[in-house]
Structures are given as structure tokens and as C-alpha cells.
Amino acid sequence: MLFEALALQLGYNATLVAIGSTLLGISAGVTGTFLFLRKRALVSDAISHATLPGVGLAFIAMVLLGGDGRNLAGLMAGSALSAWIGLICVQSLTRRTRLSEDAAIGAVLSVFFGFGVVLLTVIQTMSSGRQAGLDGLLLGSTAGMLMQDAMIIAGGGAITLALVLLLRRAMTLVAFDPQYARSIGIDPDRVDMLTMLLVLSVTVVGLKIVGLILIVALLIIPPVTARFWTERSEKVATYAGVVGGVSGYVGAAISASAPAMPTGPIIVLSCFALFLVSLFLAPERGVLAAYLRHRRFQERVHIRQGLLSLAQQQPVYEPLTIRLLAREGLARLDGVPTEAGRARAAKALLDEHRWQIVHGMADFEAISSLYDGLRDIESVLTADQLAEIDALIGGPAEVMP
Amino acid sequence: MTQLELATDRGHVVAAETLAASPLAIRGLTVSYGEKPAVFSIDATVQDGSMTAIIGPNGAGKSTLLKAALGVIKPLSGTVSVYGAPLEGQRARIAYVPQRASIDWDFPARVIDVVLMGLYRELGLLRRLTGGHRQKAMDCLERVGMADFAERQIGQLSGGQQQRVFLARALAQDADLYLLDEPFAGVDAATEKAIIDVLKTLKSQGKTVIAVHHDLATITEYFDHVFLINVRKVAEGPVATTFTAENLQKAYGGRLATAQIEELELGAG
């Protein structure tokens, strides 16, 4: 069943939902990257909650005009308008008063959401009879998705993505160094506003599939996940798009494979699963890698310190050091060095002297900054350079047993 | 309004050609955070091809003056002209090196990526980065002695190295006027030498350099002009005639002991 869904064989509706979710995931991930880099992730929460009054008002307006209150394009237009007003409120509260942005977000988010819930309650009591399903926009509801809806979502997602690609350099620069950006003529306020508009657009596009409460997850989790795998901002954006797209597709497929599985939450959970994998398994920044690196580092420091002590004929006191030296066959458990241990100790001491010389030479700055007390000096200097340095300190001295 | 009118209008009689030739001419600039002016009614006319140090005590508004001259902070009043024209049209001729403390160095970028930012203005929205751009960035890194670091993560750099990367980014802009905010703050001796060598080379190419500077002991060695400020302008001019005990006393008040002033290599006054 799941396999069939993944292979787009689960029928018309599931296929529409899968395509829409994938595109939404990609554009949310890429757009969210710039929000994340700018450290303004929470603004998206205010934007998304501020869509609700617009949804209610658009429904009422469309019913009063004699149309279908659930027309997606109409609801999206209404939600975009009220999210825009919410965004302006956050911006001007932050700029014109002494409130910090988090306080402004909290205030705007709750007031707009509260107002939206009141409007939805009013709509429940209206006699138009076709209001059922409006609260689906809170958590997403893909059950009755139409071709037209899928087209709007796909088109909106694609346009947003194109604009993000166009603005990527400006947004990266403003996130990294807004003052410098201003000095070369890029207005950070304007770029921030455009970023927020793109986030707003993703939010509105995502209403139908993941809903306004969960869209934040799709904006933020992909870049956070991507950050574990790379140290370059363009790659963070690319990987975030992949993470978002995969979660959108897999989430839609899983929810289609079982009856009454909510699409939005499943997409978010798929995304979270990718996050968890990255958190633990990412090669550089992952938790596991960091732990192993720390352990290895600690062992190497102990061995190095032990060797330097042996070279200077000082006793080694720390039990861990002795155990590690013994494990490597460099010393006996009573702390007496082996033949191999004496040789390594002499080498360690010599390297230490060599490094000291390297530190004093301006030409070797890049190499000198690699010094961590452990690195093999042969791995950074050529034999000729070493000979030159050795000439300055004299040959290695033998360690007396 | 012509430059001449602009100048006389404010009660300053400055020849029009001086203003037109000046890389940076500031008239009546006031910036305030809240209701307390950080810099007040500053006039400055920077000499073309000079190396000017902005000096003054902590909180005197040195960095603020620099940022306002660049339009990074919006001034309350005053005008800034760059090579005789309004600032906005002259952005391509200015390069700015901000304080490195204002940056999050855990940002996902390599050294070369930061230097390439110096070309963003030139690239605009649509142009792609080419090998030529990368080569230019590498050349700029070479000039500050950081070419070996191109692929390193910016978070792995020392303070002095970060400063040199910022200078390389400014060099990539190929500007005529360089404004640096405390380029020597908290850097090692090797960096200080590398930076001052680059700045002197710029000067020898006819570029103009303005730097906020803290270390009064190196003024005479590094700069040829000084601008003394303590919210208001105290004095501006060549080091030989302006960097005097009297002016320092005026700018720093009691914060600089007479003994400290005596140790400095001062102008004749």
C-alpha cells in the first residue's frame, strides 16, 4: 500500500496531494533557510497565525456575495491580506515602541488568532450550511482537494521559489552582515520585508495541505536539518529544499496509505524524522560525531601528554593515561616505557620543539594555526622545511631508559 | 543646489573645488540615539589620497560618524557628499570594513564566500559567479596573506584573521575610498602589520583611507591626517599640525593623563 502510494499509484487525489506537498515542501524549505539564517524564525509563527481572521472574513465575504465560501483562491487572498496586516503590526511594534520582537510576535500572534477563532465560531452559526471544512485550514485537510487547488499550490510554490533564488544573495548578505549590505547599497529593511513576503506566500500556499499552525515546522525544520550537513549557506538552502520536498512527498504518501491519516501532521513528522537522523548521525555537527571526536581527542591528548612526560623522564600519574599508553604498547602498566614508547616519546618532544619554531615564523601562519598539540608535523610540512627547522634546534636527543 | 551654495548656505565658506575633489565631505551631520546626540553638527573634508585616523575617547561617536557617513545609520540632519556627488550614486566607489564583533561567526560560510560578498553589488540579481570572480577573490585574499585559508570555515579563524578577511572583501570592491571601523582592535601583531601594509599600498595607488583608530601611539607612524572628535568636532588636519597635546587635551579632557600625552610622538602644533 505504502509502496503504491510512493509510486503515485494510489489514485487521483493522492497523486494531486503528493505533487502539491512536494512542491510546497521544497519552497518552504528553501524560503525558510533565509528566515533561519536571519534568526527570525518566529516571525513566521506570527504570520501564519495572523492568516486566520482573513480566512474567516474571506469566507463571509464570498458567501455574502453569493459565491462558494470555500473557494481556495478566495480564502488564500483573504489570509494573505490579514497576514500582511499582522506582519506590519509586528514590524511597527518593534520599530516604533521599545518592545522587542519576541514580545511583539507573541502579542500579534495571539490577538489575531483569537479574533480568527471568534470569526470561525460566528460562521458556524451562519445559515449558509456549507461551512464545514473551514477549520481544516488550521491543521490542513487534503481530503477534497481539487485539481484547481493543486494548480494554485504548485504555481504559488514555484513562483515563490523562483523569487527566492533571485534574491538569495541579497538575503544571505543581509543575514550575515546587514551594515555591510547597507554600505554597498542593499537596503536591509527592504530585503527583510521581501523575505517576510515570501514567507507569507509560502504560508498561504501551504494552508490547504499542512494548515496554518504547522506550516512553521515546514519552514524551520528543513534548514535546521540541513545545517547539520554543511557549512555553506547555498548548500543549506539546497539541502533544506530536498528535506522539505522529501518530507512533503513521503508524508503525503503515508497519509494516503491509511484511512483518516491527517496529511499535514504526517508531513511534519516525516520532516522531524529526517531532523532526528541528522541530529545524531551528521558527520561533522551531529551529536554522535561530536561525542566520538571528543573521545578520540581526549585519548590523543592523554597519549601525547604521557609521551612528553616519558621523554622528560617524569612519572605518569593519571591512570587513564597509563592505560592508554599500555593499550598502544608504548608503556607497561607500571608506567615504564617500552622500546617503541621511548622512540615515540623522543619524536613527540622533537615535534614539540619544531612546532615552537613554526609558531615564530610568519610564513607558516596558516600551518601554525593548525597546531593542536597532536597533529603529526610531517602532515603539514615538507621534508625540506623540516630539515630547515631541525637545523635550528639540533638533532633528536636519545631518551635514557 | 550646487556644492558651493550648499557649503556657504550653512555658514561655511569652503571653495567649491575643495568639496568636489574631496572623497568625503560632511556638512552639519548630527546623529542621535534617542534624544541624546551621539555626534553633533560635524563638518569634515577629507583630503584626497590621505590616510585619516578618526580618534577620540570612548563614546565620542567615532563609529557613529563613520556609519552615518556611509548611510548605515540614518542621520538626524546633515549632508554627505562623496567625490562631489550625493552618497547614493557613489556607492560603487566606497568600501566599508565593519567591526568584526558585530558578526555571528557561526554563520555557514567559508572565507572565500565572505570575500565574494564584496562582488555582490557588481553581480546584481541575475549574473552568475564565474571562475574570474573566484580568482579575483583569491587575489584579494592573497593581498592580506589569507589565501591559504580560502576554504576554511569562518568560525575557525582568529580575530586577526577575521579582520583580514573583511579587509579582503573590501578590496574586492575595487573602491576609491575605504572606511574602516577599528581595523586594529584586538588583532595580533602579524595582522596589524599585514593590514597597515595593505592600507599603505592603497594610499600609494591614490586611494583614500579613513579608519577609526584607538591606539594613539601608532598615529604618527600609520596616518598622515587626523580627525579628533568628542561628539563635536575638535580638530581636523595633517598629523604634523593637528595631532597636538592641546587638541588631545580638548578631545579627551581629563581621560588622558598629561604623562600619557607626553609619551606620544606629537605634531609641532
TrEMBL record, chain A:
Q: Which UniProt keywords apply?
A: Cell membrane, Membrane, Transmembrane, Transmembrane helix, Transport
Its domain of life reads Bacteria
Q: Which family does it belong to?
A: Belongs to the ABC-3 integral membrane protein family.
Protein name as annotated? Manganese/zinc/iron transport system permease protein
Keyword Signal among UniProt keywords: no
PANTHER family given in the database record: ABC-TRANSPORTER METAL-BINDING PROTEIN, METAL TRANSPORT SYSTEM MEMBRANE PROTEIN CT_069-RELATED
GO BP term, example:
transmembrane transport
Q: How does it sit in the membrane?
A: Multi-pass membrane protein
| Transmembrane domains' residue ranges | 12-37, 49-66, 72-93, 105-126, 146-167, 197-221, 266-292
A Gene Ontology cellular-component term = ATP-binding cassette (ABC) transporter complex
Subcellular localization is given as:
Cell membrane
What InterPro entries is this protein classified in? ABC_BtuC-like, ABC_TroCD
Coiled-coil stretches are none
Question: Which Pfam families would you find in this protein's record?
Answer: ABC-3
Automatic annotation (TrEMBL), chain B:
Gene Ontology molecular functions: ATP binding; ATP hydrolysis activity
Keyword ATP-binding in the entry? The reply is: yes
- GO annotations under biological process? zinc ion transport
Domain ABC transporter stretches: 24-256
Please provide the record's keywords in A-Z order.
ATP-binding, Ion transport, Nucleotide-binding, Transport, Zinc, Zinc transport
Task: Kindly give the InterPro entries that the UniProt entry links to this protein.
Answer: AAA+_ATPase, ABC_transporter-like_ATP-bd, ABC_transporter-like_CS, AztA-like, Metal_Ion_Import_ABC, P-loop_NTPase
Q: Matching SMART domains, A to Z?
A: AAA
Give the Pfam families listed for this entry. Answer: ABC_tran
Task: Name the family.
Answer: Belongs to the ABC transporter superfamily.
Name of the featured protein: Manganese/zinc/iron transport system ATP-binding protein
Protein's organism: Aliiruegeria lutimaris
